[in-house]
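An instance follows:
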Amino acid sequence: MAEAAPSTPTTHPPSAMVWLDVGQVELVRAAVGVAGITITHAGCPEAGKVREIAAALGCEPADDLRTALASTKAGLVLLAAPGGIGSGRGGASEAEIEALFACADRGVRVASLEPMPGSILHLPQDPSGIDDGAGMGVAIGPEPSEEPIAGGAASEWATFVPLARLSKPVREAGEILAQLGTMSMVSVQALCGPGQGSLGARMYDAMEMIAWLLGTPDRVDAAYVPPTANGRGRSVHALPGDSLVGLEGDLSANLRFADGRAASVVASNRAGRWSRAITVVGEKGRLRFYDDGLDWISPEGAVLDSSRDAARVRGSAQQEAAIAPAARVIGDQLARLLDAAGPVDAPTNIGAVLSMAGAALLSARTGESESPETLLRMARGG
Protein backbone atom coordinates (compact mmCIF):
# COMPACT_ATOMS: atom_id res chain seq x y z
CA MET A 1 0.00 0.00 0.00
CA ALA A 2 1.44 3.35 -1.04
CA GLU A 3 2.40 5.71 1.76
CA ALA A 4 0.13 8.74 1.99
CA ALA A 5 1.70 12.01 0.98
CA PRO A 6 2.21 14.42 3.88
CA SER A 7 -0.56 16.96 4.12
CA THR A 8 0.18 20.62 3.52
CA PRO A 9 -0.45 22.65 6.67
CA THR A 10 -3.24 25.17 6.37
CA THR A 11 -2.18 28.77 6.95
CA HIS A 12 -4.86 30.88 8.62
CA PRO A 13 -4.84 34.67 8.33
CA PRO A 14 -4.10 36.57 11.54
CA SER A 15 -7.18 37.52 13.55
CA ALA A 16 -8.18 40.62 15.49
CA MET A 17 -10.64 41.91 18.03
CA VAL A 18 -11.51 45.54 17.25
CA TRP A 19 -12.96 48.33 19.36
CA LEU A 20 -14.37 51.20 17.33
CA ASP A 21 -17.04 53.86 16.88
CA VAL A 22 -19.88 53.46 14.38
CA GLY A 23 -18.28 55.98 12.04
CA GLN A 24 -15.06 53.95 11.88
CA VAL A 25 -16.49 50.74 10.42
CA GLU A 26 -15.33 51.33 6.84
CA LEU A 27 -11.89 52.59 7.90
CA VAL A 28 -11.28 49.56 10.14
CA ARG A 29 -12.62 47.17 7.51
CA ALA A 30 -10.27 48.63 4.90
CA ALA A 31 -7.25 48.78 7.22
CA VAL A 32 -7.48 45.15 8.36
CA GLY A 33 -8.04 44.18 4.74
CA VAL A 34 -4.75 45.83 3.79
CA ALA A 35 -3.05 43.92 6.61
CA GLY A 36 -4.70 40.60 5.68
CA ILE A 37 -6.39 40.30 9.08
CA THR A 38 -9.72 38.60 9.87
CA ILE A 39 -11.97 40.27 12.46
CA THR A 40 -13.39 37.82 15.01
CA HIS A 41 -15.03 40.23 17.49
CA ALA A 42 -16.00 43.90 17.50
CA GLY A 43 -17.14 46.22 20.24
CA CYS A 44 -18.04 49.86 20.72
CA PRO A 45 -18.00 52.43 23.57
CA GLU A 46 -21.76 52.89 22.91
CA ALA A 47 -23.30 49.69 24.25
CA GLY A 48 -26.40 50.05 22.08
CA LYS A 49 -24.31 50.03 18.88
CA VAL A 50 -22.28 46.86 19.50
CA ARG A 51 -24.53 44.45 17.59
CA GLU A 52 -24.90 46.88 14.70
CA ILE A 53 -21.14 47.19 14.34
CA ALA A 54 -20.51 43.45 14.70
CA ALA A 55 -23.11 42.70 12.04
CA ALA A 56 -21.58 45.27 9.69
CA LEU A 57 -18.16 43.64 10.09
CA GLY A 58 -19.49 40.06 9.95
CA CYS A 59 -18.13 39.04 13.35
CA GLU A 60 -19.18 38.34 16.92
CA PRO A 61 -20.07 41.21 19.31
CA ALA A 62 -17.79 42.17 22.21
CA ASP A 63 -19.91 43.88 24.87
CA ASP A 64 -17.21 44.78 27.39
CA LEU A 65 -13.69 45.83 26.47
CA ARG A 66 -11.92 44.66 29.61
CA THR A 67 -13.61 41.25 29.40
CA ALA A 68 -12.70 41.01 25.72
CA LEU A 69 -9.07 41.86 26.48
CA ALA A 70 -8.94 39.11 29.09
CA SER A 71 -10.53 36.43 26.94
CA THR A 72 -9.66 37.14 23.30
CA LYS A 73 -7.81 34.44 21.40
CA ALA A 74 -7.07 36.78 18.51
CA GLY A 75 -3.50 37.74 17.73
CA LEU A 76 -4.29 41.46 17.71
CA VAL A 77 -6.50 43.92 19.56
CA LEU A 78 -7.08 47.13 17.60
CA LEU A 79 -8.37 50.05 19.69
CA ALA A 80 -9.67 52.48 17.07
CA ALA A 81 -12.04 54.47 19.29
CA PRO A 82 -10.86 56.77 22.07
CA GLY A 83 -13.63 55.67 24.42
CA GLY A 84 -12.89 53.00 27.00
CA ILE A 85 -9.39 52.49 28.36
CA GLY A 86 -7.52 55.63 29.32
CA SER A 87 -10.36 58.02 28.48
CA GLY A 88 -10.89 59.20 32.03
CA ARG A 89 -9.35 62.35 33.46
CA GLY A 90 -6.74 60.36 35.36
CA GLY A 91 -5.85 58.13 32.44
CA ALA A 92 -6.22 54.36 32.55
CA SER A 93 -7.00 52.65 35.83
CA GLU A 94 -4.64 50.06 37.28
CA ALA A 95 -7.07 47.30 36.26
CA GLU A 96 -7.20 48.59 32.68
CA ILE A 97 -3.43 48.72 32.40
CA GLU A 98 -3.16 45.22 33.86
CA ALA A 99 -5.63 43.99 31.21
CA LEU A 100 -3.45 45.46 28.46
CA PHE A 101 -0.26 43.98 29.87
CA ALA A 102 -2.00 40.60 30.31
CA CYS A 103 -2.59 40.59 26.55
CA ALA A 104 1.13 41.02 25.99
CA ASP A 105 1.84 38.14 28.39
CA ARG A 106 -0.39 35.91 26.23
CA GLY A 107 1.28 37.03 23.03
CA VAL A 108 -1.63 39.24 21.94
CA ARG A 109 -0.48 42.50 20.34
CA VAL A 110 -2.45 45.64 21.23
CA ALA A 111 -2.48 48.57 18.79
CA SER A 112 -4.25 51.89 19.26
CA LEU A 113 -5.12 54.80 16.97
CA GLU A 114 -4.93 57.01 20.06
CA PRO A 115 -1.82 57.61 22.21
CA MET A 116 -1.87 55.57 25.41
CA PRO A 117 -1.14 57.16 27.81
CA GLY A 118 -2.26 60.52 26.49
CA SER A 119 -0.42 62.72 28.97
CA ILE A 120 3.02 62.89 30.57
CA LEU A 121 1.17 63.27 33.87
CA HIS A 122 -0.22 59.74 33.49
CA LEU A 123 3.23 58.13 33.43
CA PRO A 124 4.34 56.38 36.64
CA GLN A 125 5.51 58.89 39.26
CA ASP A 126 7.61 56.29 41.06
CA PRO A 127 11.14 56.77 39.64
CA SER A 128 11.56 52.99 39.56
CA GLY A 129 8.63 52.86 37.13
CA ILE A 130 10.01 55.43 34.67
CA ASP A 131 12.54 54.16 32.16
CA ASP A 132 15.78 56.14 32.07
CA GLY A 133 15.49 56.61 28.32
CA ALA A 134 18.60 54.63 27.43
CA GLY A 135 18.25 53.48 23.86
CA MET A 136 14.82 55.07 23.52
CA GLY A 137 14.50 56.94 20.24
CA VAL A 138 17.05 57.24 17.46
CA ALA A 139 18.58 60.60 16.54
CA ILE A 140 19.66 60.57 12.90
CA GLY A 141 20.66 64.21 12.97
CA PRO A 142 23.01 65.94 15.40
CA GLU A 143 23.08 64.54 18.90
CA PRO A 144 20.79 66.63 21.13
CA SER A 145 22.64 68.61 23.75
CA GLU A 146 20.37 67.62 26.62
CA GLU A 147 20.38 64.35 28.49
CA PRO A 148 17.95 61.66 27.27
CA ILE A 149 14.50 62.35 28.62
CA ALA A 150 12.90 59.72 30.87
CA GLY A 151 9.96 57.54 29.92
CA GLY A 152 10.65 54.94 27.29
CA ALA A 153 8.68 52.23 25.54
CA ALA A 154 8.10 50.40 28.83
CA SER A 155 5.57 53.10 29.73
CA GLU A 156 3.51 52.70 26.55
CA TRP A 157 0.26 50.84 27.21
CA ALA A 158 -0.47 50.01 23.56
CA THR A 159 1.45 50.38 20.30
CA PHE A 160 0.43 53.61 18.60
CA VAL A 161 -0.36 53.35 14.88
CA PRO A 162 0.37 54.73 12.41
CA LEU A 163 3.70 56.43 13.08
CA ALA A 164 5.21 58.56 10.30
CA ARG A 165 8.64 57.33 11.41
CA LEU A 166 7.65 53.78 10.48
CA SER A 167 6.02 54.61 7.14
CA LYS A 168 7.60 52.86 4.16
CA PRO A 169 9.20 55.99 2.59
CA VAL A 170 10.88 56.96 5.88
CA ARG A 171 12.01 53.39 6.62
CA GLU A 172 13.65 53.14 3.22
CA ALA A 173 15.33 56.56 3.32
CA GLY A 174 18.11 55.86 5.81
CA GLU A 175 20.88 56.38 3.26
CA ILE A 176 19.33 59.62 1.98
CA LEU A 177 18.90 60.96 5.51
CA ALA A 178 22.55 60.19 6.22
CA GLN A 179 23.58 62.09 3.07
CA LEU A 180 21.40 65.07 3.96
CA GLY A 181 23.92 66.10 6.59
CA THR A 182 23.22 68.20 9.65
CA MET A 183 19.51 68.97 9.92
CA SER A 184 18.52 72.52 10.74
CA MET A 185 14.73 72.47 10.44
CA VAL A 186 11.87 69.95 10.41
CA SER A 187 8.23 70.71 9.61
CA VAL A 188 5.44 68.15 10.07
CA GLN A 189 1.91 68.47 8.72
CA ALA A 190 -0.45 65.82 10.13
CA LEU A 191 -4.07 66.06 9.03
CA CYS A 192 -7.07 63.74 9.00
CA GLY A 193 -10.84 63.67 8.81
CA PRO A 194 -13.62 62.38 11.10
CA GLY A 195 -13.11 58.88 12.50
CA GLN A 196 -9.45 58.71 11.42
CA GLY A 197 -8.07 59.75 14.80
CA SER A 198 -8.11 62.70 17.15
CA LEU A 199 -6.09 65.89 17.04
CA GLY A 200 -4.16 64.37 19.94
CA ALA A 201 -3.19 61.40 17.78
CA ARG A 202 -1.95 63.66 14.99
CA MET A 203 0.06 65.71 17.51
CA TYR A 204 1.61 62.58 19.00
CA ASP A 205 2.66 61.34 15.57
CA ALA A 206 4.17 64.71 14.61
CA MET A 207 6.05 65.14 17.88
CA GLU A 208 7.37 61.57 17.68
CA MET A 209 8.85 62.26 14.24
CA ILE A 210 10.50 65.47 15.42
CA ALA A 211 11.91 63.83 18.57
CA TRP A 212 13.35 61.03 16.42
CA LEU A 213 15.04 63.40 14.00
CA LEU A 214 16.11 66.29 16.25
CA GLY A 215 15.72 65.27 19.87
CA THR A 216 13.82 67.25 22.51
CA PRO A 217 13.27 71.01 22.05
CA ASP A 218 14.03 73.65 24.61
CA ARG A 219 10.74 75.57 24.17
CA VAL A 220 7.36 75.00 22.51
CA ASP A 221 4.97 77.79 21.49
CA ALA A 222 1.51 76.65 20.33
CA ALA A 223 -1.95 77.88 19.39
CA TYR A 224 -5.11 75.76 19.57
CA VAL A 225 -8.44 76.18 17.76
CA PRO A 226 -11.30 74.04 19.14
CA PRO A 227 -14.02 72.47 16.96
CA THR A 228 -16.62 74.96 18.21
CA ALA A 229 -14.65 77.99 17.06
CA ASN A 230 -16.28 80.44 14.66
CA GLY A 231 -14.63 81.82 11.54
CA ARG A 232 -12.41 84.13 13.60
CA GLY A 233 -11.19 81.35 15.91
CA ARG A 234 -13.30 82.39 18.92
CA SER A 235 -14.97 79.89 21.16
CA VAL A 236 -16.51 79.60 24.60
CA HIS A 237 -14.25 76.60 25.27
CA ALA A 238 -11.03 77.74 23.64
CA LEU A 239 -8.46 75.93 25.78
CA PRO A 240 -7.35 72.29 25.64
CA GLY A 241 -6.88 70.08 28.70
CA ASP A 242 -3.69 68.20 29.54
CA SER A 243 -4.45 64.94 27.69
CA LEU A 244 -4.19 64.06 24.01
CA VAL A 245 -6.92 61.39 24.23
CA GLY A 246 -10.04 62.50 22.38
CA LEU A 247 -8.67 66.02 21.75
CA GLU A 248 -10.43 67.61 18.76
CA GLY A 249 -9.67 70.65 16.60
CA ASP A 250 -6.58 72.29 15.10
CA LEU A 251 -3.16 73.13 16.51
CA SER A 252 0.00 74.80 15.28
CA ALA A 253 3.27 74.81 17.19
CA ASN A 254 6.79 76.19 16.85
CA LEU A 255 9.59 74.28 18.57
CA ARG A 256 12.94 75.88 19.41
CA PHE A 257 16.06 73.91 20.24
CA ALA A 258 18.87 75.10 22.49
CA ASP A 259 21.44 74.76 19.68
CA GLY A 260 19.49 76.94 17.23
CA ARG A 261 17.60 74.29 15.27
CA ALA A 262 13.85 74.64 14.74
CA ALA A 263 10.74 72.59 14.04
CA SER A 264 7.05 73.22 13.44
CA VAL A 265 3.80 71.26 13.60
CA VAL A 266 0.45 71.79 11.89
CA ALA A 267 -2.10 69.22 13.07
CA SER A 268 -5.85 68.82 12.69
CA ASN A 269 -8.56 66.17 12.74
CA ARG A 270 -11.01 68.49 10.93
CA ALA A 271 -9.17 68.49 7.61
CA GLY A 272 -11.51 66.24 5.62
CA ARG A 273 -9.16 63.41 4.73
CA TRP A 274 -5.82 61.90 5.65
CA SER A 275 -2.61 63.74 4.73
CA ARG A 276 0.90 63.64 6.20
CA ALA A 277 3.94 65.53 4.95
CA ILE A 278 7.33 65.93 6.62
CA THR A 279 9.89 68.46 5.37
CA VAL A 280 13.50 68.13 6.53
CA VAL A 281 16.03 70.84 5.66
CA GLY A 282 19.70 69.95 5.93
CA GLU A 283 23.14 70.78 4.58
CA LYS A 284 22.48 68.86 1.35
CA GLY A 285 19.08 70.28 0.53
CA ARG A 286 15.44 69.56 1.28
CA LEU A 287 13.85 66.16 1.82
CA ARG A 288 10.05 65.93 1.80
CA PHE A 289 8.26 62.75 2.88
CA TYR A 290 4.72 61.74 1.99
CA ASP A 291 2.97 58.49 2.90
CA ASP A 292 3.47 57.30 -0.68
CA GLY A 293 6.98 58.51 -1.45
CA LEU A 294 9.52 61.31 -1.15
CA ASP A 295 11.27 64.16 -2.97
CA TRP A 296 14.89 65.16 -2.40
CA ILE A 297 15.87 68.57 -3.72
CA SER A 298 19.48 69.82 -3.72
CA PRO A 299 20.44 73.29 -2.40
CA GLU A 300 20.69 74.35 -6.06
CA GLY A 301 17.15 73.13 -6.81
CA ALA A 302 18.00 69.93 -8.67
CA VAL A 303 15.85 66.82 -8.10
CA LEU A 304 18.22 64.27 -6.57
CA ASP A 305 15.59 61.60 -5.86
CA SER A 306 11.83 61.37 -6.29
CA SER A 307 9.36 58.53 -5.92
CA ARG A 308 5.59 58.53 -5.49
CA ASP A 309 3.14 55.61 -5.45
CA ALA A 310 1.15 55.65 -8.68
CA ALA A 311 -1.75 53.93 -6.87
CA ARG A 312 -2.54 56.91 -4.67
CA VAL A 313 -6.09 58.25 -4.92
CA ARG A 314 -6.67 61.92 -5.65
CA GLY A 315 -9.58 64.20 -6.38
CA SER A 316 -12.47 61.87 -5.51
CA ALA A 317 -15.31 62.64 -3.13
CA GLN A 318 -16.22 58.96 -2.72
CA GLN A 319 -16.00 57.48 0.77
CA GLU A 320 -13.54 54.82 -0.39
CA ALA A 321 -11.20 57.50 -1.69
CA ALA A 322 -11.51 59.51 1.52
CA ILE A 323 -10.51 56.60 3.78
CA ALA A 324 -8.01 54.90 1.45
CA PRO A 325 -4.89 56.89 2.44
CA ALA A 326 -5.48 56.32 6.16
CA ALA A 327 -6.41 52.67 5.68
CA ARG A 328 -3.24 51.96 3.73
CA VAL A 329 -0.85 53.39 6.31
CA ILE A 330 -2.72 51.86 9.27
CA GLY A 331 -2.93 48.47 7.55
CA ASP A 332 0.75 48.55 6.61
CA GLN A 333 1.81 49.07 10.20
CA LEU A 334 -0.62 46.49 11.59
CA ALA A 335 0.88 43.92 9.23
CA ARG A 336 4.36 44.98 10.32
CA LEU A 337 3.36 44.68 13.98
CA LEU A 338 2.20 41.07 13.46
CA ASP A 339 5.21 40.02 11.38
CA ALA A 340 7.26 37.96 13.83
CA ALA A 341 10.02 37.54 11.24
CA GLY A 342 10.28 41.26 10.50
CA PRO A 343 12.83 43.71 11.90
CA VAL A 344 12.39 45.10 15.40
CA ASP A 345 11.69 48.84 15.25
CA ALA A 346 13.32 51.26 17.66
CA PRO A 347 10.78 52.05 20.40
CA THR A 348 9.26 55.47 20.91
CA ASN A 349 10.76 57.65 23.61
CA ILE A 350 7.31 58.20 25.01
CA GLY A 351 8.50 60.52 27.77
CA ALA A 352 10.04 62.89 25.23
CA VAL A 353 7.00 62.80 22.95
CA LEU A 354 4.42 63.32 25.70
CA SER A 355 6.42 66.11 27.31
CA MET A 356 6.65 67.90 23.93
CA ALA A 357 2.94 67.47 23.27
CA GLY A 358 2.13 68.47 26.85
CA ALA A 359 4.23 71.61 26.48
CA ALA A 360 2.22 72.49 23.35
CA LEU A 361 -1.09 72.07 25.20
CA LEU A 362 0.19 74.09 28.15
CA SER A 363 1.43 76.83 25.82
CA ALA A 364 -2.01 77.00 24.18
CA ARG A 365 -3.50 77.61 27.64
CA THR A 366 -0.96 80.13 28.92
CA GLY A 367 -0.21 81.99 25.70
CA GLU A 368 3.52 81.65 26.46
CA SER A 369 6.22 79.29 25.25
CA GLU A 370 6.65 76.29 27.55
CA SER A 371 9.42 73.82 28.31
CA PRO A 372 9.04 70.03 27.87
CA GLU A 373 11.53 69.63 30.72
CA THR A 374 9.06 71.39 33.04
CA LEU A 375 6.39 68.83 32.13
CA LEU A 376 8.84 66.01 32.78
CA ARG A 377 9.59 67.35 36.23
CA MET A 378 5.85 67.50 36.93
CA ALA A 379 5.52 63.84 35.89
CA ARG A 380 8.34 62.96 38.28
CA GLY A 381 6.48 64.77 41.05
CA GLY A 382 9.15 67.47 41.27
